[in-house]
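User: I'm writing a tutorial on reading structure tokens. Could you give me a worked example: one chain, its sequence, then its tokens, then a sentence or two explaining what the tokens reveal?
Assistant: Sure. Here is the example chain.
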Amino acid sequence: MDNTTKSLTAIALQKFKKNFWGVFSFWFIIALIFISIFAYVFTPDQSENANQMHLSIHSKSPGFEVQMLSIPLIEKAESKLSYYFFGFPNNTTEIPITTYTVQNEKLIYTEFSDDKALAQIKEIGLEKFSGFSSIKEVAEQNIKTQKFYLGTDKYGRDLLSRMIIGSRISLSIGFIAVFISLIVGIFFGALGGYFGGKVDAFVMWLVNIIWSIPTLLLVIAITLTLGKGFWQVFVAVGLTMWVEVARVVRGQVISLKEMQYITAAKALGFGDFRIIFNHILPNIMAPVIVISAANFASAILVESGLSFLGLGAQPPIPSWGGMIKDHYSYIILGKPYLAVVPGLAIMFLTLAFMMVGNALRDALDVKS
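And here are its predicted structure tokens:
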């Protein structure tokens, strides 16, 4: 079918589908979003923030297996739907063990230790396990072999679970920071480009001031002003990324406000804001979408840098940047994967957004 019979959206979608890496990156991002939303369904460690620590098995290599004895702390609470989104309460103590035996209704176990000479032998009775009729039944149901597919971190936490939960931070910072940057950037860019004169001069003065300050330094200043925390980082990153959007929107508005259909709208008596929001902004969204994809990648990198400096999401909330900060010294200690794994995750997610941005740029280019 001839392209002249298709809408511009259909043509752009058709061109986007032909870009293999763009489509692959798009579905990679969609899959990661799905996994992050239902993170606690996929994580081996379903405790809140995947924060179940086992210091005796810290810094273990990927694929490490150990027998785990679970001792209930409290009565098992009734399962709630919210637990599947925010984590289950930590109502058990998990003890890594090497061997165990059952004698006289006592469970005798040897705690795991890298130095076998330091391994402690302990015993526990049936009174610690409510709802069981015999200690043998306890051993069958509460001692299971646990495999750590990506190994454990320096606190003995499951690295895979921390990686999956940590993806929420990177994706959330992207969406929220880009949303804030779009709101502020489109507002100032449209005002400056449409009204010109002193309004445009003020907008460009503000843009140049923000742009002259290094992004990371400005984010650190805003974060310290708002305080350390989860949402403060999102707001800080968003408030530093709007200048690129404002410059793009301003340039597009300046090029479109002299078009004949805008002149006709003015002649019909339409108000300035109606013209801006109903007639100009819908026609400049293509470059805004492209720059938003790039800003997603930038926001993820900035958040990772902040977490590395200790100003991002605070422990025990897992974040990829924070995981690199905790384990970068292990690169020279013979266990580089503890820092390399979250580093690769940041790289692949950033690359995926850049690939999608490049594919959108090519698809929305009317000259191609």
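What the tokens reveal: Residues 52-148 form one domain. The beta strands are 64-72, 92-103, 106-111, 121-125, 143-148.
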